[in-house]
Amino acid sequence: MARKKQTKVKTPKAAVVLNEVVDSTLREKYSVIGKPIPRVDARAKVTGEAKYAADIEVADMLWGAIKRSPYAHGRILNIDTSKAERLPGVKAVITGKGFGGFKWGWSRETRDEEPLAVTKVRYLYEGVAAVAAIDEDIAEEACELIEVEYGPLPGVFDPFEAMKEGAPLVHDDRPGNICVEYHWDFGNVEKAFAESYLVREDIFQTPRMAKGYIEPPAIVAYWPDSTHLTVIPAKGSPYFPYRILSNCFQLPLSNVQIIQPFIGADFGGTKNDMVNGDFSAVMLAKKAGKPVKIVYSQFDELTTCLRRHPMWITIKTGVTKDGKLKAIQTKVISDGGAYTRMSPLSNFLTGVCMALPYKLPNFKTDVYCYFTNNPSSAAMRGHGIYHTRFAGDVQMDMIGEELGIDPVEMRLKNAIKNPEPGKMYETINKLTLATCGVEECVEKAAEAINWKENKKRERVKGDKAYGIGFACGTYLSGTKLSGHNACAAMVRICEDGSVNLMTGATDVGQGSDTVMCAIAAEVLGIGLKDIDIKRVDTAHTPVDPGTYGSRVTVLAGEATVNAAKDAKQQLLEVAAKEFGVKPEEIEIKDKKAFVKANPEMSIPWARLVRMACYTNPGMVIIGRGQSKRGISTYGLADFTTGTGDIGTNYSFTAQAQEVEVDLETGVVKCTDNSVIAHDCGFPINPPAVDTQVVGGAYHPGVGAALYCEFKMDKGLTLNPNLVDYKLPRAYEAPMTKVIHVITNDPFGPFGAKEASEGSTCTAAPAVINAIHDATGVWIKDLPAKPEKVFWALKEKREKEKK
Amino acid sequence: MNQKGIGYVSKTPNFLIEGGIGMKGEPRELKIKVNGMLYELKVKPKALLSDVLRKDLKLTGTKRGCLESTCGVCTVILDGKAVRSCSILAVQANGHEITTIEGLAKGDKLHPIQEAFINHGAIECGFCIPGRVMMAKALLDENPNPTREEIRLAMQGVLCADSGYVKQIEAVEIAAERMRGGE
């Protein structure tokens, strides 16, 4: 792995610059935010008007299909497309060779993937050719007619095979199949272990998982002329394809137009990144001279698209007699799949975030990610952190049990305290926090589930056992990576007083469009209905890194605050002239501009805007704003040393979960007795935070704990449909309760931090801890499927007999 | 779709192609009533109902998800019953009456289920919402006073990735109450 040399981390000084955009007096007086805000796109979605990528149709459009490899590892010896080309209705056939050796990847150093494989396929069903035809059936039939000669190669299908000496190489130039590795050492773990009262080592395992969204990748691409490209893809980060397609087709960025339709959810990975179909649609459109649409099936998605890394985590922890963490040492082995993709970041986060949310004075980690001939792994909600947080929080209960300390007490003893206002907490690896509500989260969750009473109750009732488990989670928000991470917003005031808001951020369902509108309305002093947000169109909207790393509310939100302030300032100057006062003496609220000292002196919003636009010489009011937090001035993470802030701020969660274990069959169910206390700083739209925490975090977490995993056989996904994969349905969805813990972070707009990605990390350990509380067995490899629990219970019973 | 060399995985319902009504079959006449409008079309024998709704009638509110009856986002109402339009051949719907999400609102006036979904904040990415709302409508038309368990059972048929079902189940309860009140 090419380790990136980056700017040395600058840790913010102890005195925190309080959020310049919102002062505390304003916080009390919000008119739009902080209360239930109806989603701005709900009506379009509930009437079926909302167009997703697969719903888009362009005149004269062709359908594309991908020819995929039947080998997980093999050389491509020859591709004969002549029969396919002769099939009536076929308009273009392409192979990987047409891309002229172009390779792409997550960063400059990791460009190891071709749009369609040229010399070698590295995972099963990798794309090798593509066809555009007048309808979908003909395109698929033509794919069958493409003849590909392969030289099959032996493959490696898990990291333990991949690391063996002499193992087949997935990439000929990557010895040992190492995709990325990190080795960090903070403090002195050896000394701390020697001084510890108790040292415990366990191995945990997290499985390969699907993202679980229902909308598979889809794209429509066309070339308005030979130098301009327009693409309408199902992408949560449209500026990824913007840059990648510009490189691939050697077009200036100015000529690449990515138009963002509605997005049917994205949990990291595939919809940030590119798939074979994206490149193919663009190339086929170029070759055929007509628009081309490619829609993946769920089978394509589940067999070829990005997955969560399976990881094997060895964790050694030393504690004092009263349960305080002295040191943690981890060794993580992960399966990166066929290409590098985002593995450097996933594995970085896996290592670096062990220092949250508990005080940890000594920490050492070794993380190894290997290439295998499986579909590539990448970001998935709770990116990287999910794996080690699972290991850490389950082991915390194991240690608590050995020491005779209650799980809630264990967490309260170790939780990082919320820093005093103006002070920062710094972890051993230099993550800095201005706010941390984890302690309050634990207290509130324990209280809401009535732990004091419930811990004394009888666990077994007939053939069922009931138990309650706790876990804490964290996640970075406003992620800061290298390079260009600034983002911007524009607020355009129309002459009738209505407003267009343009950001580069993408709402993939999390509700950011609503939050951005609410922020703009709040700052401008007008209503939510006055704002119309435009979805991303790279020809018109300002650049934005994308919807990942829980960065939209915090960074695009900051940009929106600044843009709205800029537009407002222009209007304040007009009003000031009218009243003969200074602009700072005027405020706009409830669609009225007034002199603060004399509110009688006022103008309605619409009149003020008209005055500004029509009075000689007439203004065009466009407010511009940029996010500054995401850029290097505020420090960046250093991938070499594993130090420094990857996030602008950090969210925290504590979860309490009750389970019911069937002692005969091993079937575990999460009951409705469940609480998630979440510190997202300040919930700008509280019900949206609730649905995010419940649906975007908790249920996928329950899925991860009990049901979901890809079963593989030599690179073949054995359960490539959402029934066999066991994505939770309404029956597996407990009616959990969400509690908001408000910490008002100084680095987020209106005190906000990310919502719910941290909560993704709590369900799995809470459920596993609850199973233990109910039955006394530990399940260390997820998911806790009935057969695993059944055998564990049987083993325990047999041990007890002896 | 089908890849040569892989005998043990099959995604397309092969019987549709190989069972004598393959893709090369002559187009057949189809008369269906969709959202109150009568349509007369010629469709491929293998065409799925969802394909005809989306591609021929341009009713893209009905989503295309898995094409194998697992996700339910293509749910429409056929003669009063919720069905998955990806798992019915269009010709099987010949002579029948279909309601899709586009046919639910009366002009600008949304159906109580739609309103409840908006007002209760039950919508996230929205991809499953058309199918889910149609599923809820079929349920409430047949059983105006369902228990929470019965609503869960109906919602079981449509997968959601990101809203967690809780608010959706509650939204159906709210809608049911309003509909019983005569709306």
Strand content of chain A: 15-25%
Based on the coordinates given, report the CATH architecture of the largest domain in chain A. 2-Layer Sandwich
CATH architecture of the largest domain in chain B: Roll
Q: Please state roughly what percent of the residues of chain B sit in beta strands, choosing from under 5%, 5-15%, 15-25%, 25-35%, 35-45% or over 45%.
A: 5-15%
Instruction: Please write the CATH class name of the largest domain in chain A.
Output: Alpha Beta
| Mass-distribution shape of chain A | globular
Average pLDDT level of chain B: 87
The percentage helix of chain B is 25-40%
Describe what this molecule looks like in 3D.
The complex is a heterodimer of chains A (802) and B (183). Chain A is of the alpha+beta class. Chain A has three domains: 53-153 and 215-264 and 271-304, Aldehyde Oxidoreductase, domain 3 (Alpha-Beta Complex), CATH 3.90.1170; 311-480 and 636-801, 2-Layer Sandwich (Aldehyde Oxidoreductase, domain 4), CATH 3.30.365.10; 483-634, Aldehyde oxidase/xanthine dehydrogenase, molybdopterin binding domain (Aldehyde Oxidoreductase, domain 4, 2-Layer Sandwich), CATH 3.30.365.10. In chain A, 27% of the residues lie in helices and 24% in strands. Chain A contains 20 helices and 31 strands. In chain A, the strands form eight sheets. A seven-stranded mixed β-sheet of chain A has the order 3-5-1-12-9-10-11, with helices on both faces. Chain A has a five-stranded mixed β-sheet with strand order 7-15-14-13-8, sandwiched between helices. In chain A, strands 18-19-27-28-31 form a five-stranded mixed β-sheet, sandwiched between helices. In chain A, β20 (488-493) and β21 (499-503) form a beta hairpin. In chain A, α10 packs parallel to α11 (385-403), α11 (385-403) runs parallel beside α19 (763-775) and α18 (686-707) crosses α19. Chain A is globular. Mean pLDDT of chain A is 93; it is low at 1-27. With 183 residues, chain B is an alpha+beta fold. Chain B folds into two domains: 14-100, Ubiquitin-like (UB roll) (Roll); 112-180, [2Fe-2S]-binding domain (DNA polymerase, domain 1, Orthogonal Bundle). Chain B has six helices and five strands. Chain B has helices spanning 14-18, 49-56, 112-119, 129-142, 148-155, 166-180, and strands at 28-34, 37-43, 75-78, 81-84, 97-99. In chain B, strands 2-1-5-3-4 form a five-stranded mixed β-sheet, covered by helices on one side. At the A-B interface, α2, β1, α4, α9 and α18 of A face α3, α4, α5 and α6 of B.
